[in-house]
Specification:
This protein has 17 helices and five strands. It is an alpha+beta fold. The protein folds into two domains: 141 residues, no CATH class; 128 residues, Homeodomain-like (Arc Repressor Mutant, subunit A, Orthogonal Bundle), CATH 1.10.10.60. A five-stranded mixed β-sheet has the order 1-2-5-3-4. α13 packs antiparallel against α17. It is elongated.
Length: 325
């Protein structure tokens, strides 16, 4: 779970409240997945508390997740707050996605997903679970039913501590994903903190940042195209845009993408153009879009199109162009 500085600082501050001297853990800057995983491993070992990430999330005060907190809090209902959170959570933790699923009888499931998965994601899932539970319970105008909580945590020897922390015995351990179930009544529960005027103001602020991010995507694609057939690195592209590597990663995450995915998209579109033109051989196309070997290009094309480039060429340019649109 890559973190923006404010979120990393919030976690460090909260660990301090739990008696963890973070500098003594000698982790370094908490700004990427390995550092975060190391932080949790050492903090849990130091305290002997496997539930520490969950405890931190449950106690993290409103406001520590910056605009994400205030957008959710100013929404009309629990469901509206979680829908907003799904969209803007990457502003605080670019690697985290919230998936909203509708189940039978109107039950909604909010799934916590780390993209991509990484060592230590179990601890990060517990942190986010604690944050979401604390926020919704605090802001809701009545107690929530919460039919089930799904935990990827292996079955503990004793459920007592988990039940006490989570405030419910409706726990399913050893699940594939971390998730919270909300009943239809939960989903429609009004929030005490609802503020339509504040919500509109914050939505406008977030919309501006997301539009800026869309423009940034265009700039990243343009720079990548200019550098083909060389394979540009994020370390080369970020300074050209006046950004640090971490800032570029965060802003791309707002559009639910990454530098690797943007580069892959650029290669795909350029390869489609060259294949449609029908002038170059497949080996020449591979070289033009940055593949050292034709075999690597063929594998990439099969991933993009589900067939070999030779078969796509036989089908003709009309099909390739139509798919691209």
């Amino acid at each position: 779970m890559p973190l923006v500085p404010a979120t990393a600082q919030a976690i460090i501050e909260m660990l301090g409240r739990f008696g963890v001297d973070v500098p003594r853990l000698k982790v370094g800057p908490i700004d990427d997945d390995p550092a975060l995983a190391t932080l949790w491993t050492r903090a849990i070992a130091r305290t002997g508390r496997r539930t520490l990430p969950l405890e931190v999330g449950l106690k993290m005060p409103l406001g520590m997740m910056s605009v994400v907190d205030y957008l959710a809090a100013s929404s009309a209902t629990v469901g509206a707050a979680l829908t907003v959170a799904q969209r803007v959570f990457p502003l605080a933790a670019p690697g985290v996605q919230l998936l909203l699923e509708r189940l039978r009888s109107g039950v909604r499931r909010v799934v916590i997903v780390n993209q991509p998965p990484f060592p230590g994601e179990l601890e990060s899932d517990l942190l986010v679970l604690g944050i979401l539970l604390a926020r919704m319970r605090t802001l809701a105008s009545r107690p929530l039913e919460l039919p089930w909580l799904e935990l990827t945590e292996p079955h503990p020897e004793s459920r007592t501590q988990w039940v006490e922390l989570l405030g419910t015995s409706r726990l399913r351990f050893g699940m594939r994903r971390t998730a919270i179930h909300f009943s239809a009544g939960d989903w429609a529960t009004p929030l005490r903190s609802a503020d339509p005027r504040l919500l509109a103001t914050l939505e406008a602020m977030v919309g501006t940042e997301q539009r800026t991010t869309d423009a940034l995507l265009v700039a990243v694609r343009a720079l990548a195209i200019q550098r083909l057939p060389a394979t540009p690195t994020i370390g080369e592209v970020a300074p050209a845009l006046g950004l640090s590597v971490r800032s570029l990663q965060r802003r791309l995450a707002l559009s639910r993408t990454s530098f690797v995915e943007v580069l892959d998209e650029v290669r795909r579109h350029r390869a489609e153009q060259l294949l449609d033109e029908g002038v170059l051989t497949l080996g020449e196309i591979a070289a033009r879009v940055g593949f050292a070997e034709q075999a690597s290009f063929t594998r990439a094309w099969q991933r993009w199109r589900g067939e070999t480039p030779s078969r796509s060429r036989r089908r003709g340019p009309a099909l390739t162009s139509r798919r691209r649109r």
